[in-house]
Amino acid sequence: MVGSVYVAAGGDDGVRRLAEAWHRRVLADEVVSHAFSHGFHPEHTERLAAYWAEAWGGPATFSTRYRGDDTLVLRMHAGQGRHEEMDDRAVACFDQALADVEVTDERLAATLHDYFAWVVAEMAGYPESPDQVPDGLAVARWSWDGPLESV
């Protein structure tokens, strides 16, 4: 593959379609939907797409427009205890969403799967409290070869 993961995933439109497909999948899943049972931001899908796009080498929309970083994202998911089944099912929903949006390139699908499984594990790394998450964590970047050093 030539170019960034973001470009291969279809740029803003492709990443947005994937975020929408994943969100539909998790809301329909009896286990993962619990994470959304108390509601979610009306722009959740747009914010998620911006986060993924930035992580995959696209524009820094999440950091600039939404003033987000990994500290924000990790704290949002921290302090919920351990929930391995939910994490595994969220990854399965992501894999299904890849099929929903017809990501057929095997290398791209594997790279996106690896990213999502990695980021879910990162989010699960602070089960006791959001206070465990360090300040100032930039959005982690992902390449064809895995995580990049922080920018």
Proportion of beta-strand residues = under 5%
CATH class division = Mainly Alpha
Q: What's the β-strand tally? A: 2
The CATH architecture:
Orthogonal Bundle
Gyration radius (Cα, Å) is 15 Å
Average pLDDT, all residues: 93
Physical arrangement of strands within the biggest beta sheet: 1-2
Keywords: Heme, Iron, Metal-binding, Transport
Protein name: Oxidoreductase
Pfam family, one: Bac_globin
InterPro entries: Globin-like_sf, Globin/Proto, Hemoglobin_trunc
Describe the structure.
- The protein has helices at 5-8, 11-28, 44-55, 61-64, 70-77, 84-100, 106-123; strands at residues 142-143, 146-147.
- It has one domain: Globins (Globin-like).
- It is built from 7 helices and 2 strands, in the order αααααααββ.
- The longest helix is centred in the first third of the chain and has 18 residues, at 11-28.
- It is 54% helix and 3% strand.
- The protein is mainly alpha-helical and 151 residues long.
- A hairpin with a 2-residue loop joins strand 1 and strand 2 (146-147).
- Strands 1-2 form a two-stranded antiparallel sheet.
- Helix 2 crosses helix 3 (44-55), helix 2 (11-28) crosses helix 6 (84-100) and helix 6 (84-100) packs antiparallel against helix 7 (106-123).
- The mean pLDDT is 93.
